Amino acid sequence: MSARALTADTDRLVITGAPVPSGDALSVLLAGRRIWTVRAPESDDDGSLTVPWPPSLSERLTGTARLAVEHGGREIAAGTAVFDAAGGEFDLSEPGTGVPQVVNKWGRIARSFEGRDAALIDHVLDEAEHLIQVLRRTAGIDLFVTGGTLLGPVRNGRIMAHDDDADLAYLSTHTNPSDVVLESLRIERTLVQEGYEVVRHSSGHLQLMFPGGTITDHFYLDIFTYFECEGWFYGTFHARERAESVTLHPLKPLPVNGRMLPGPAEPEQLLAAIYGPSWEVPDPTFTFVTPPAAFRRYYWWLNHFDVDRENWEDHHRAEIEGGPVTAPSGLAVAATSALPPSSAVLDLGCGLGADARYLAERGHRVLAVDYSRPALAWARENVAPDGGAIEFERANLTMARHALHLRKRCAELDGTVHVLANHLFNALSPLGWDTTLLLVKHLLAAPGSRAFVEVGVAGAEGSASWAEYQPVDWTRFQEQLARYSLVAEDQPDSGPGQHRDGHGKDRERTVLSRRVLVRREKG
């Protein structure tokens, strides 16, 4: 069968006249390298296939690209796409290092082991072995391999080529979810004391980061909490099976790339719980579908504190590579004109620090926080002026203990602390709204304290993408403020604005925003 034509823009890929059954796997190649595997959708009325790009890839597409699509190992379509007039050939590689990237099973842009130096996998496994020893020695926790690090070795003794990390887990001795959470917090403190950089996804999922440069990560290790409760086995974040059907202990050695790592007593049982009964059959398009009963329990017991953090980090890396925006936001300019001289300002969701720098250059002291690690790393090196007028700090505003830490940090700034939040509430989850508004309420208890807030309420911000935030319902926002004895005043509407993407291009967006001053209600 001859290859069919394809066309593409920054939103979608269209294959003309390709007879591909719905649900079959399609591999997308960029300049001959496989970057994404996806299930074929239903054909359009004219017989063509329209495949939306994942948002993480869509926001990065620029210039031209030589694309091809394979089905069943055969090329069925090929063509050159022109995404914009920027020129140059699009290259999906990691900013700062040039390491080739792919779209992983989460729809994120990430590295994979495929085509990489074998020494990288050895390094990952060396660190996994060391971590196993550290937690056994310091916390009495027995880690074992799980997920993809179990799946590949059970199939053929080796890590899968398209994987990009190592998955480890432990079985908690606790059966009450509250005790399980407290145990996980103790483990996190232990790991931090041992020098690890830890990111918490949920109360049952920790990620240990191994940076490869200022804004890049060499790799990471996952630690998942498994536990039993009322006769059910729970394998964070997805599995829920009757406890008697998943046997983990006693752990037994498992060959992984020529070395022996601890594995579960019955690997096949755990793999069936995680991936389903067809786990033995390779499926490059596999995605997790969490049963509703499991999702409800995981959300209310363990919650989720890492909404879109990885996507924001990818976005910031691309923005750094393309040329960061250095101009301050309109909100920062307006706030500066209203602040008393030499004010202390808490910049929530500071990103790459353009607003923080603007405030500091005008004599204010700024505590700038974000949860994007590459954004903060870049800002510390490129934005922070001499004299310590800006301090950059990582904080996750969905976590109450991080918000409490920020209250302590603000108390150390001496004097009244004002708040700047530029479109922050367009990016936060409902849990983040509550945690942040509680923090703002406490800070506004100081006489003269002000909170300068801008929210996008309509227009092109209707996408679920992290690049174009969710619009805020204005009535709901006011109701949420009232819950915390807060009120918005001085509510001018600001008109259309520009969004500069990670490649230095300006993309027009019609965004209606409300710029407000939040204060505490009297009485």
From TrEMBL:
Q: Which residues form the Methyltransferase domain?
A: 345-398
Q: Which segments carry the region annotation Disordered?
A: 488-513
Q: Which terms does the UniProt entry file under GO BP? A: methylation
Entry keyword set: Methyltransferase, Transferase
Composition bias, Basic and acidic residues: 498-511
Q: Which domain of life is it from?
A: Bacteria
Q: Name one GO molecular function term.
A: methyltransferase activity
Q: Which InterPro entries does the annotation name?
A: LicD_transferase, Methyltransf_25, SAM-dependent_MTases_sf
Q: Name one Pfam family in it.
A: Methyltransf_25
Name this polypeptide is given: Class I SAM-dependent methyltransferase
What is the originating organism of this protein? Arthrobacter bussei
